[in-house]
Amino acid sequence: MAADVLSQAGLRVIVADAMPTVGRKFLMAGKSGLNLTKVTENLTDAQNQPPEQPSRQLKVLPENLTDAYGPLPAPMTAALSDFGPVQVMDWARGLGQEVFIGSTGRVFPVAMKASPLLRAWLHRLGAAGVETRTRWRWIGWDGAAVVFETPQGNQILTPDVTVLALGGASWARLGSDGRWAGLLPGQTAPFQPANMGFVVNWSAHMTAHFGQPVKGVALIAGKHRERGEFIISAKGLEGGGIYAIARDLRQGTPLHLDLLPDLTQAEITTRLARPKGKATLSTHLRKTLKLDGAKLALLQEFGGPLENLASKIKYLPVSVQGPRPIDEAISTAGGLRFDAVDNDLMLRSRPGTFAAGEMLDWEATTGGYLITGCLATGRKAGLAALDYVAKATV
Predict the structure, then answer these.
(1) Backbone angles phi, psi at 229, to 5 degrees
(2) So what's the pLDDT on residue 66?
(3) Where are the strands (E) in the chain, listed by range?
(4) Cβ contacts of residue 331 below 8 Å, gap of 6+?
(5) How far apart are CA 293 and CA 228, in angstroms?
(6) What are the φ/ψ torsions at residue 50 (nearest 5 degrees)?
(7) Considering the entire predicted model, what is its pTM?
(8) Of these four, 35, 83, 99, 354, which has the most CB atoms within 10 Å of its CB?
(9) Beta pairing, strands 224-232 & 236-238
(10) 338-390 confidence digits (pLDDT tens)
């Protein structure tokens, strides 16, 4: 994104990537449908409007940015305000990739996959003269020069400006290994997993339910209540509903489930009071409350004695033993601290060097917010770098 901004302004740009090909994590993000961003209102109008008309009537961001991103410093808020869902949709369309809005407000390319968008983007960069150097890993500075480890030996460049977009520390096989943090001592916060599963030490009876989805529930972590779904796996719990409250769970907030969020506790109590005859308790719960096998299994696993079933169904404590390993996480928290950069995302310790993307210390839930945040900060860093060059030549 920074290269796009700089090259369109006429600067000579080199993109150095440590991997054999560029955009590997971007491609992985699109493996099951590339969720670019998320809109929050006027969905019908947006879906019905002509493709060539930008989606100006859409709400640009959630009213409270912390709903999706948690507390944010000023540079991140500014980046997202300048380049939110509206601009992401227009950007994709500008690359010839029409988008559509799903029923939950999530925005996808019509092609669904990331590869057509990435090809179009790389073609535009190539047409603007951007050079790509693969298997070039940044290993630090030598005075004013930027040093790369390459198959041909160390290479040294002396650019007017540098934009670092080094990623987080998950999915190391795609290039995000966090090794760069050692090159910026005293400027980073420890990496932590984000959007990750959580470990549960299951009883033997749960084995039959591994791989099953749990739908139509509310997940509760302290004051955070999230409607969603998740998967029971051999390792524990994973999926969108868990990811939405992962930050709270990672910080030690207990997890509770509301297995029937559309019913009150009083309504559940009334239904449970119906005569069950010779039916087993499980059969009675299925018939009166429509609890499926996965929910019944969770109730059996964590509900304890049979008293106060209605309250347990509405507020079932779930014992999690902590997050899964960081390399299994979709994204990471931690990284380059915002007090190490100025409002233009320039390193305070190194004028002319800017930072963008997941390497900055922010996190977001899944749902398009991650890609939007990376695009927005890449654009902001690119614009700031362009302004830095312009001032340096005056």
Answers:
(1) -140, 165
(2) 62
(3) 14-17, 37-38, 99-101, 106-109, 131-134, 137-142, 145-149, 155-157, 162-164, 188-194, 198-199, 213-221, 224-232, 236-238, 255-258, 316-318, 331-336, 353-355
(4) 168, 170, 194, 195, 358, 363, 364, 370
(5) 18
(6) -60, 140
(7) 0.90
(8) 354
(9) antiparallel
(10) 999 999 999 999 999 999 999 999 999 888 999 999 999 999 999 999 999 99
